[in-house]
Amino acid sequence: MKATAFAPGHISGFFEPVYSQDLSRTGSRGAGINITLGATSVVFAENSEKQNFEIFINNKKSSAIVTKLALKYLLGESPVHVIVKTTLDLPVKQGFGMSAAGALSATYALAKVIGVSQNEAMKASHFAEVQLRTGLGDVMASCFGGIEIRKSAGLPPWGLIEHIPGNYNLVLCVVGKKLDTRKILSDTSRAGKIVDYGKYCTKKLLEKPSIENLFSLSYTFAKKTDLLEKRTQEAIDAANQFGMASMCMLGNSVFAIGKTNELCKALSLFGKVYVCSVDESGARVLES
Questions:
Q1: What is the mean pLDDT of residues 1-20?
Q2: What one-character DSSP code corresponds to residue 59?
Q3: Residue from 220, 219, 99, 243 nearest 171 by CA
Q4: 2-163+280-286 has which CATH code?
Q5: Every domain of the chain and the residues it spans
Q6: Which of 22, 125, 235, 283 gives a 20 to 30 Å CA spacing to 115?
Q7: Considering the domain 168-277, what is its CATH architecture?
């Protein structure tokens, strides 16, 4: 049996980590944009004497710890042999939510094969992501798509999302080295600022939900939390001449909207550029 699923990438503009003993209530408040570049997984599953996984990412065999843990959550103890072939449209550890999209597309496809709900797939991917600290709110956001404000953390019924309507073309640029989300989330000296400014930005955006406000608060968050490096700042300044830009959380990369062609030219001086748009559908099984 096989199935194919897609999960959008997710860019966080800002976030406030929320931890609980209960993984269903762990996650983040904040805001971000789901994008049409993401992860597509083709999953094959067959009965076997014991449970085992073979995971390939962009045609290379991978340990894919988030995807593997998510699949284990979904299968429980069932003795199934699972082969996953995932294609990622964007680099990992650059704030594009690729670990969440990879896990989510794989669990959505496997859920289809074994006949369990997409809700179970979402839960399995969320648990894996928050347990491994590779992300906090990406799975929830990626399931629902659009430009979202995560009003409360965790999975439904605790996690609540509000949408900002609109569809835009986005220009992304990878400017600097990868950032390790797990390291940043575990850095106690930085954690306080991230919580304080994440809370402040979420409150301000809920008071006036607009794409303009999301970009301006995201930039405030990047500066106030000391996450913004000099070169990323320069890329944002260059992009701001043709629209609005900020830093992707958590990566040395930039997202921008405005005059797409001019943004591409300006940002291509800083690194590899990608163009996409808002994904309004969220994670989904593709008809094969």
A1: 96
A2: T
A3: 243
A4: 3.30.230.10
A5: 2-163+280-286, 168-277
A6: 22
A7: 2-Layer Sandwich (3.30)
The first and second tokens of residue 202, run together, are: 């979420």
Reported as a single tens digit per residue, the pLDDT across 190-226 is 888 999 999 999 999 999 999 999 999 999 999 999 9
- The tens digit of pLDDT for each residue in 139-162 reads 999 999 999 999 999 999 999 999
Residue recorded with tokens 């083709």:
42
Enter the pTM of the model.
0.96
Can 2-163+280-286 and 168-277 be said to share one CATH topology? no
pLDDT at 288 over 80: no
Please report, for residues 24, 89, 195, the alpha-carbon distance to residue 130 in angstroms, rounded to integers and kept in the order given.
9, 22, 16
pLDDT in tens, 13-22: 999 999 999 9
- Backbone dihedral region for residue 122 (phi beyond 0: left; psi -120 to 50: alpha; all else: beta): alpha
The C-alpha atoms of residue 147 and residue 10 are separated, in whole angstroms, by: 9
